[in-house]
Structures are given as C-alpha cells and as structure tokens.
Amino acid sequence: MILHNPSEKDIIDYRVEEAEFDSRGNMVIDPNTNRYKWTGNTLEWTIKAGEKVDFPDYVAEYLKEIYPFLIEVKPEAEKPVEKLKKAKGKVGGKFKCKYCPKSFTSKRGLGLHMGAVHYEKL
C-alpha cells in the first residue's frame, strides 16, 4: 500500500513488529490473540515529509492509525493518459506544465495531467 506524507513532519525509523507469513504469502494469525504472529524481529520504517512510500499492507494500516495525516495513494499507472486528455476537453492555454511543453486551459486540467503523466515527480 502506498502512503503519502503531506505534512511537514518526517516519520523516521518507526518500529513495527515483523509479521510472519505462510508459504503462500498470507499473514499468519495467532488464534489466541486474533492478531498477526510476530517473527521476533522489529522493522524500522521511514516516510519523510512530502514522500510517497510503498509499505506492506499491515504496516501501512498501523501507521495510518498512529499518524492520521498519512494518505493512502492509489497507483497512478492505472489512469490511461490518452483517455484523461480526451475526457477533459481542450488542451492548450495559460497553465503550462513545468516538465513538458503542454499547456492547459484550467488548473484542474494541469493537475490531472501532472497526476497522470508526472506523478513520480510530485
């Protein structure tokens, strides 16, 4: 799960117990506690201000509980660029992309372009 830290606060070396997984990649649940089984190792996770980081799902869910300002981000690759352009109408205008020569008639159009084409630079 990809999390985005929109705040100005770095979360550095946050410790989370490492979950045990079975041979099929499923998290092992302890029937006595109804929580995931712990391997005995503790992992440290970091997400700096403004960063987007891909975490294992159980780590991301835990971090979101502790830091409610963290936002889950859907993978941008699922948005086809050509369909976005056609669906949003006219291209060309006073809102210019700083990464390529395209320009748009609205801030929204530029924002959609940035999220679909230049998401790795945001």
How would you describe what is shown here?
The protein is α+β, with helices and mostly antiparallel strands. It folds into two domains: 2-73, no CATH class; 76-121, no CATH class. The chain contains three helices and seven strands, in the order E-E-E-E-H-E-H-E-E-H. The strands form three sheets. A three-stranded antiparallel beta sheet has the order 4-1-5, with no helix packed on it. A two-stranded antiparallel ribbon has the order 2-3. A hairpin with a 6-residue loop joins strand 6 (91-96) and strand 7 (103-104). The longest helix has 11 residues, at 107-117. It starts with a strand and ends in a 5-residue tail after the last helix.
Helices and strands in order, then pairings?
Blueprint: E1 2-4, E2 11-19, E3 38-47, E4 52-54, H1 57-66, E5 71-73, H2 81-87, E6 91-96, E7 103-104, H3 107-117
Jot down its keywords.
122 residues, alpha+beta, 2 domains, 3-stranded antiparallel sheet, elongated
Short summary of the structure?
With 122 residues, this protein is α+β, with helices and mostly antiparallel strands. It has helices at 57-66, 81-87, 107-117, and strands at residues 2-4, 11-19, 38-47, 52-54, 71-73, 91-96, 103-104.
